[in-house]
Give the backbone structure.
Amino acid sequence: MASKKFIQALDLLESEKGIKKEVVLDALKEALEKSYKKNYGGPESIIRVEINEITGKIRLYEIKHVVDDVNDEDYELSLEEAQMINPKYQIGDDVVTEVDPEVFGRLAAIQTKQLLKQKIREAEKETLYNEYIDKKDDIINGTVDRVEERFAIINIGRTGALLPLKQQIPGEKIYEGQRIKVYVSDVERNTKGTHIGVSRTEPGLVKRLFEMEVPEIYDGTVEIKSVSREAGDRSKIAVYTSQENIDPIGACVGPKGARVRNVVNELNGEMVDIIEWSEDPVVYISHALSPSDVVHVEIHEDDHSALVIVPDNQLSLAIGKRGQNARLAVRLTGWKIDIKSVSEAASEGIVYGTDAEFEKSFEAEMTKQDDVVEQDNVEEEIFEEETFENEVEQEVPDLQEDDMVEDDSLDEETFDDYDDYDDDYEDYDYDPKYDEDIDYDEFDKYYDEK
């Protein structure tokens, strides 16, 4: 009768704690073995325990080895003692002797009980850890058991989870008995047991809520590429689909906004911006800064940053309250974003749009022309050098002495002509009045009277 109750207790333990019957039976076998060695055998004793899983009957066996010379009585037996049990035993045989479990005294029973409880606790920790480690980064439903100033205890089934104040949505009121969805952020196993950390502020909570509300996200038709969040105030999610006939934003919003409204209600009224993801960083950053309009986006790959130009009346909207919109856009896209208005860009001399394209094309054309001119100059210099070298290499004719004399006579005749010029110059009547200083005041007065 007691054996049947024992099996029933194992079935109840498995249903309530999730500990399998085989795990408890193995723990009981180990506890009986250790207790017998400690109280009746020795540390080197060989003990075998058998438990019938249907009837619950326990059988205990002690095994000793037959030897000529006994050195350790815990696991060795002489041939004479063995043949007293059975004459067929020989040297090297194992003698198996059944021990009545009733031999266990009160102290041994208490030790067995303690060992069994310890094994069950260890098995329970292992089972609990294995169950919730698979739920990490997922949403689970719970009930608020207790609310304290700095934390709340959430009953999530077989155990409780700690929800710290900093992991609660700002402004949200939590009360005992409330049904609540929490995000499993951490599962840790230590000597005290399995610790499960939950949160209501993680960006992953927004992603999982949309997966629950939007079938297209759950089946993979629409993909959530990125999520940025400031809990209790605002979130941004970037969605994408490769199918042209599906609107990813419309799928998340749902009929008459029902799907996104359910998510917002679960997040205690937190605003959710849904944008379309794009491979082009210019388009992606423009979408991320919605609801603001964007005039121009300039990408700088070297430092992974972007310059964004917005209309003057949209600057505050693009930056957001206390910089929130820009901050969420940076987290969503992973790009550093510098936002300027049109007037700020003009005052700083920033050229963008068609002007920037014209300036780049003009600069490229001028660079090209400079290269052509430089090449022409180089070719001309090379040509002149080659011509000069060819002229130098030509043979210079030898001058004869008679030729030199004739040239000298020509020079003498040429310089003699200057004597005739001097004679003519002496016959010229020179008027000394031209050496006098001219009174320009009188000259001006003359023309004024005219």
Remarks:
- The two ends are 155 Å apart (CA to CA).
